[in-house]
Amino acid sequence: MNMREFLFLALLLGLLLEQGCVPRYREAQDLSKPAKPAAAKVMFFVADGMRPDLMESYARQGFMPTYLKLMDEGVRGDNGLVQAFPPNSGVGWYTLATGAYPAQHGSTNNTFHRAGEDDFNNLTSYSMPGVLQADTLASAAERAGKKVAQIHWVGGVNAKISGPTVEFGHYFSNRGVLAAPFDSSEEASAGAFGVSYQAAFLAPARGWTQVPAGDPSAPPRQTIFTIPTKNPAENPDRIYDVYIYDSRVDGIPAYDRVILVANAYAKNGSRKSADLTPGDFKEVKLRGVDGLTGTRAGQTASFYIKLISLAPDLTSFRLYFTPVARVLATCATDACHALPPGGTGEDRLEKYIADHLPGYILSDLAPLHAGIIDEDTFVQQGLELEAIYGNAVTSFILGTLQPDTDLALVGYPTPDEFQHQFLGLITPTDMDGTPNPCYDRVRCKGALDHRLAIREGYIRSAYAGADAKLALARKWRGTHPTVFAASDHGFAPHWYAVNAGQILEEAGLQPTAQTANCRAGGAPTRAKACYSGATAQIYISLSGRDPGGVVPAADYENVRNQIGDAFRNLADPENPDKQVVLKILKKEELRNVEGSDSLHPTRSGDVVVVLRPPYQFNASTPGKRIALTPFFGSHGYLPNLVDLPHQVNMRGVFVAAGPGIRKQDPLPGIRAVDLAPTIARLMDFPGPIHARGKILFNLFPSPGKMGE
Ligand SMILES: [Zn+2]
Prior knowledge:
The chain is of the alpha+beta class. Helices cover 24% and strands 20% of the residues. The longest helix is centred in the middle third of the chain and has 27 residues, at 375-401.
């Protein structure tokens, strides 16, 4: 061939290599491969919902010193990375873990329908067992003999590895408040959000033993509350007697202290569960005979209790209890087998953490939306308590249980939770420049809250919390791991909810609108919506495909067009000029959504609707097409939707630094699917088998030498 042809071929080969198109067996023939892996230890850290632009801004301002150092020493993506579609947790985490798209890993959104299974009412959550259909980086590493740990890594349990894995918790009860004075509007709102509201009657204390008498000028009072179970087979309703007294004997009546005793202990203060002053937020461990019951008899669980307020004259009183919970953990290593055994079927790591470390806790939006707790309490739960619990677990696993971990996958939930609540409250205008009615107004009407700086501070504290968690995790046993820091999706402010069921009803596809996500409406439901954030997948009840399907195959296309028209014509009656819908896709178009292969044969919707900020689908109002929401941030828009002046950035974080990573300028074109294959290559083991991403050779010190 002549020089021209040679150059063309070289260019073509280069392009193929870039795309990861060259078969993997070439690796075995690669003589330039270094004898040792470029990175012996890797920490893969994912902060849920972290926006790359906000991370960079906080890092520059000094609030995220660990990320700043990593960006300084290594590389970041130019506006991070692009996630798979839709950029929601149920998609993003699995995409990072597998290097595959939803078409392969099977998690098409946070909540989705599985066509052909059960009846048309079926609903699958991304965290359910068996959802994951693709190989993970964690499994691939273990097959290669690496020691792997997954800590608060969403979807980690579904990877079914041997290494220590800690994920979400099990919840056994509801949560709520015991409050005085009684407020009927709070009670109604608590009911609407499914949380418990109990009136406190502060009667003179009777029959108590082993408790301080307190100041005689303020005779002790008592009240009682119940933590209502959600699962009576494993956890009873738990009743607590509450003793309220004035601990300072100074002749001035001023109630300032509360003691909690489980009802079974007959007001005996020596068996107290908690002793609280106003503001205290403490764990109550439930172990042994006080532990779980039934098949979980004797297993340890816990809840947290906060004395939100106690007026010295008892004119107001508020005690908040979180759900009875227990960490979910699995482990099958020798180190875990050496931990103390529990009951039948009880995982030893789960038992050890439940027994010896602070109880499982995460932030919880429902009590805040119901208006029964304040923003500070919500933030304290998600930030301070999470840190106490999460840091203990992280340090135990990476410091004590498995200090020779090669690959640590560590997650952090809080940026997602805080942005869901606060992002829209600090954003003055929509993308179209029109004013946000909820800017600094949590009720979206009336006087301003004057809490802009405080709420921006909450979001910043969550980003700083991620930085602190990453700093803690990467220091395991003094090693200096290569760090990959990413996120599962970005964020946008929102303040409106679209009621997908209502629109399907008005289009004649549901006789009465579906009342719950992914559930059928009135019979015969011809189509239903399964949604999360800004993306709804609309599934048709198709005869011959779905058991009991009501739409004949011949009508399939008509019904799809009907759905498309219903959403295409969707206007906001109160804001007729606003664009509500960003994109409508037919199922086959999911093969390539901004590069993401999101076409799963049985789990993708027949029509998919993507909204535009400030609209999304969660927490809609029954009977209303569009209404304001009680929370103010979401994700699941198109993966490349970016409008930084309006706080919209759906892209995820990408930062990498440490051994094997070259210091360089920000890189464009990073995709979430590329991380798992790249980490596998750095650590010198074959990557996850369904991965569709490419190895990012451009991250490595000498790309020429490390190339295949
Ligand atoms: Zn979220």
